[in-house]
Amino acid sequence: MSLGELLKELRGDEGLRNAAKRMEITYSYLAMLEKGTDRRTGKPLKPTPETLQQIASAYKYDYMKLIEAAGYLLDPAYNPALKEPFAHNSSLQQWYKSLPDRNEKDVEKLKTIWEVIHESGDN
Length: 123
Description:
The chain is mainly alpha-helical. The protein has helices at residues 3-11, 16-23, 27-35, 49-59, 63-69, 90-98, 104-121.
């Protein structure tokens, strides 16, 4: 489901003006968010995480679900879990966290070791 479809569903029968007022955004901006495009340019519209927070608060909806619908979930700036090494592999992440005195240099060493192993497999 797109962000626009989700926003329409969350708004339900409530009017655009009333919903936008509760979010402290303009009703025309909310209408564009629901359509998914900027009416002036025709380009896709991506609200800021701050705007998504206002929407989540107004609808009493999970902020992270809005972040995901808006395409921010894979952005480390908005998803702290991705800032950690091996964010997409929980078993490797657990193993890494169990290492004593781990740091960025360790990750670089592991990357180098992996590259050597990967290259030797190509021969």
